[in-house]
Amino acid sequence: MQTTSNTIESQPQSKTRRRVFSGVQPSGDPQLGNYLGAFKGWVDRQDQKDNFFCIVDLHAITVEQNPEELRRQTRELAAMLFACGIDPDKSTLFIQSHVTAHAEACWILNCVTPIGWLERMTQFKDKSTGQDSVSAGLLDYPVLMAGDILLYSAHEVPVGEDQKQHVELARDIAQRFNRIYNELFVVPEPVIPEVGGRVMGLNDPNVKMSKSFSHIRGHAIRLLDEPKEIQRSVMRAVTDSENEIRFSDDPERAGVNNLLGMYKVLTDQTESEVEADFADARGYGDLKKRVAEIVIEGLAPIQKRYYELMDDVAELDRLLTTGADQARQVAEPKIQEMKQAVGFVLPDQSRSQ
Ligand code: ATP
Ligand code: LTN
To answer: Catalytic residue at 211?
Structure first.
């Protein structure tokens, strides 16, 4: 890990806790993969870390969005993150567009990022293939993400497996900027959960469960799904023709592995403990029934808190305004350092009030 004295002085961080930054897009309905691959880990570790979590609306508009829906989904996602356990006394949760330094950082970093690095990104290839028209923003998505991370001098970036390549690109961009200008950035590390890092679709265990597909029946478990719906989706999950309930790397058995993985993370058990739980199970029907029960049980308190929070939108907005104020305290000095480093004349501070 590369940390410079310059960085440490200019970015006051907790002396003992490592800084964490992560983000989530307010597009579509949050699903179980988001919770197991990201939110749960953010919440479980928030006491040990110095945390910044961001609802990335600038990223969301890289593909077409309905403005009213985006506004609604942004507040809903904030409520969902608090409901999952993000504690405003321990973590800073804010909306990306509230802190203008993110867009500014993206521009400056664009100018040190070769286009070839962006064209290689798998997410860009996946999201652009077959589209009639692709926005420049979609190609630039990972640079905006690098800006998010680097502005906060984050050491750790907890994300699902699908985002690892983007965090690696953020490392490359940080190192390139540090080499060209002065050593300004902490080089971040991706932190991927061992299990839960890649929750697969119930209808197709070879495809990652994703918010964007959550409208497809039987694909995802949405965090707000009612117990009946959850039960229906899990009972219909694609498995295989065998009958053995154990973890396995065999792609043919990806469906069962996926169900066991969900159960493992939600019950906080080891693989052998999970397998022991199913020693008396009679086939995949039993497995699915118990997985559905655990998911329903795990989501019930989250859903309850979510609806309470959504009852008081003014309070939710107030929490987000405070979050943005706290985020600005870190991001603003950093963007000034970036501007200084690349040779901009900084505005005369003595004249601003
Ligand atoms: P979209 O379909 O819009 O890309 P998404 O469901 O993939 O949405 P993001 O907002 O891109 O969700 O991701 C939020 C966080 O959830 C990221 O850390 C991402 O890695 C994680 N995540 C998303 N889907 C999964 C999954 N199926 N398994 C594990 N982690 C996931
Ligand atoms: N691309 C991420 C969301 C994201 C993010 C970030 C994650 C935007 N900026 C910074 C970690 C750090 C995704 O999950 N799709």
So the answer is: yes
